[in-house]
Amino acid sequence: MVNLQGEHIRLRALEPTDLDFLYELENNTDLWEISGTTTPYSKHVLKLYLDNAHRDIYDVKQLRLCIVKENKVVGLIDLFDFDPQNKRVGVGIVVLDDKERNKGIGTEAVSLLTDYVFQVLGLRQLYANVLEENAASLYLFKKLGFVEVGIKKDWIFSNGMFKNEILLQKIKA
């Protein structure tokens, strides 16, 4: 049985009480580059999103979970582009507070989610798209057995320039 509870964090579904955290995260322009966001979100729109967050991954092709440390939401981890036919899904993670980064939260969260993807969803492949300049995320995924398989040249246009994105994969042994 897969447990979404780790030693220091746990992963849980979004709740209506996460509205303020989601509002802060989605409207943080520093994160728009990695999320593909181009406009701010209202609390009303985010509340509608939360009202539908219970929908099944097979229906909406994505799953967003809160990363909780000591009963406080510190980040989100997402599964996206869920493809059960080809047994793969993408993963993205963000820890909002800089002070909470580089403390093992990301490692634990990705490890828990990897177990969930392989054991519960029965998928064969997990992949991540990471900006070439994001050394911390590249280190995290490689440390957890993800392999760099390609470079998407000039993939992201941000702040007036194009940036490369690295594609990493982890294939179930």
From TrEMBL:
Keywords from the named record: Transferase
Single GO molecular function: acyltransferase activity, transferring groups other than amino-acyl groups
Claim: Transmembrane is one of the keywords in the record: no
Domain N-acetyltransferase: start-end pairs: 9-169
InterPro entries: Acyl_CoA_acyltransferase, GNAT_dom
Keyword Ligase: no
Protein name: GNAT family N-acetyltransferase
Organism: Maribacter luteus
